[in-house]
Amino acid sequence: MPSLITSYINGKSVAGTAGKLTSTNPAQIADVVAEVSLANEAEFAQAFAAAKSAQKAWAQTPAPRRGRVIAAVGKLVEANKEALAALVTREVGKPYAESLGEVQEIIDTCDFFLGEGRRLYGHTVPSEMPDKQLFTFRVPVGVAAIITAGNFPVAVPAWYLVPALLCGNAVVWKPAEYASALGDALTRLFVAGGVPAGVLNTVHADGATTYRALEAALEQAQLQKIGFTGSTEVGRRIGELAGRHLQTPCLELGGKNPLVVMPDADLDLAAEGALFSGFGTAGQRCTSLGVALVHDSVYDAFLSRFVSRVASAVIGDPTNRAVLYGPLLSSRFLESFEQWMAHIGPHHQVHGSTGRGRITAKNPRTGFVGDPEAGYYAHPSIVTGVRADDALYRNETFGPLVSVMRFSSFDEAIELANGHGYGLSSAIYTRNPVHAFQFRERVSAGMVSINNSTSGAEAHLPFGGNGKSGNGSRQSGVWVLDQFTRWQSTNWDYAGKLQKAQMDIEEP
Ligand code: UN1
């Protein structure tokens, strides 16, 4: 019998009454990881009420003590690193080495924020007037609702939960349904680390229930910040909802991340970067390579290197250490990938794969390990002949599919790097520092790599995007503190008489 996952509200396990879903291993569909009881709107509302009442005492707990709790969580995650990584591989199909890396990102985030508990600096500011002191303080926002995707089922939640809690907020977290066992496992580690009852509540629910619960909590002033990582389409809806309540959410959405190959690039390095960021994690990172933009003069040389690397990549069972990527996250992602393959038209050419769409015994692939029929596996596809008005160029495809386009001038490369309207990550391969820095200046992405791939952001650099990739919010490092605190300015006047700003200043 698989375990039954329930929501965790106000320190207790709460079985939801909105039905059950089954979380399965995408590499072994017959392997049921967990049964999950889904919460209805009333159960979701209990989580917001619990968060609201627990937040006050948590905010009054000195920040260095909250930092100690984060330190304890980090130590527990470290002690359980292999078990948690094995569950990442089992529930979402990520190759084990990547799963270990994902768990390491939680540890790195805890390392960073345990120290922030002893900083959370404000400022002292000079006043226009004598006998008066000005200060700034960071104050917690209140209750944060965090809604996360399953492609980074534990690291990206930790990017939100750790700073939100450290800053003195209470949290209601809704993990991806197909990563519920991981949501439960991470919640237990936070609780074991000492997060008090009601301060972290984890609710398993479907999207429609979540949306209505957010709306109700906003209407009742029980929710002050929404953090959402997921599709641009859902991000727009959340942005609209938050905006109606005069809130700025933290939105981390899709990408169509470009990788520019200049004539002077190290082509082997560029092809290796394109392989890792285009096909690693089956192209299911928001920072995955979406479109390789290659200068005419090196187009054939780059393409042949890229195609031969993809053709020889090992794909399959994610517990096998040799695989580049395993299955897609769930059946929904395989269906959407197959729909994207249907966009391939007569002016396109598909390379790098021995087939199209799903990998099966009838549509096999050399270099496959494991049983293709057992999981949601997809052929890797490099598509050339892509045009700027193709849906393939204008949208995130989220799967093992990379578009390749050519350019003849640097200006054209910049136009193609920005023209789809996303702005998350980007990369340029060149030996010319002038081009590298001109690219940095002109690309609209929030993140730029020079001679490195588009994915693999580190846990203490600002992470986030612009345009269709997000609303300019940033996670990670000190920058995320502006998501989970608000500045309060304070003035202290000890002149003993009313001093009026702008009116009582004596010119020197
Ligand atoms: C995501 O896909 O939502 O940059 C985050 C990277 C990772 C994070 C990706 N460290 O590849």
UniProtKB/TrEMBL annotation:
InterPro entries: Ald_DH/histidinol_DH, Ald_DH_C, Ald_DH_CS_GLU, Ald_DH_N, Aldehyde_DH_dom, ALDH7A1-like. The keyword Plastid does not apply. It is an enzyme of class 1 (oxidoreductase). Its EC number is 1.2.1.3. Coiled coil: none annotated. The active site is at E252. Residues 19-489 form the Aldehyde dehydrogenase domain. Signal peptide: none annotated. Keywords: NAD, Oxidoreductase. Gene3D superfamilies: Aldehyde Dehydrogenase, Chain A, domain 1, Aldehyde Dehydrogenase, Chain A, domain 2. The keyword NAD applies. Belongs to the aldehyde dehydrogenase family. Homotetramer. This is aldehyde dehydrogenase (NAD(+)).
